[in-house]
Fold each of these.
Amino acid sequence: MEDKIIRTTVKKYNVFHTCSTSAPPTTEVCHLPTVKHGSIMVWGEISWRGFGPLVILHERIKSNHYLSILEDHVHPFVQTVFPEERPLFQDGNAPIHTARYVQEWFGEHDDEVELLT
């Protein structure tokens, strides 16, 4: 049973990048665009059988964006990794996960993937 569960997560990573002070100012590395500080958020899915692509989130995720992630990433992942099977999909209870549109999507795809609640 454990090998048929798909888990998802959103993770925020802090990004710090500086140019080396020991490098001469004409070094190509010092002329690349850099982020002095900030963060990046990434969404991903994983199961015992494999993992899907990481999706970079440019802003806080909302239910309509999450719906496109389900359609563009989860659906192909299920079809590729679990052909002819019905895996269990596990996410949290965040408002975007329980939104009506998201629940409707899982209802429409119930023959392909079961939502763990």
Amino acid sequence: MGKSNIKELQQLIIEHLILLEEKIEHYFPSLTTSADWVVLPFDFTDNVNELDLTNNEKNELIDMSSSSTIRILFNSKKNNMDSFWALSETSYKCIFSTFFTLHYNTLSSPRSNMNDESLHAKREKS
């Protein structure tokens, strides 16, 4: 095999791997997202400023994470995230609205990594 054939083969392999990577990212997006706070709202208090949230949403998330009552509610609803967020709606309207938008828009997306099984798996690990 000549040098030019090897170069062509290398280029073909590289192009194939790039395309494969794009397809994998499409069907299996990163498991860590900026919306992980939806599943684990108490794990983001140290880096809340890094989240893609408004100031009101950040403040509500901080308030929520410092509430022992909400933490107890969260732990009691561990297998039903929707129930937890629904019960939190009256006290945390901004963050609930964001949860609702993220959760239901993502579930309808073909690239969703927030289906019920993966959400529960993330919560189980915490």
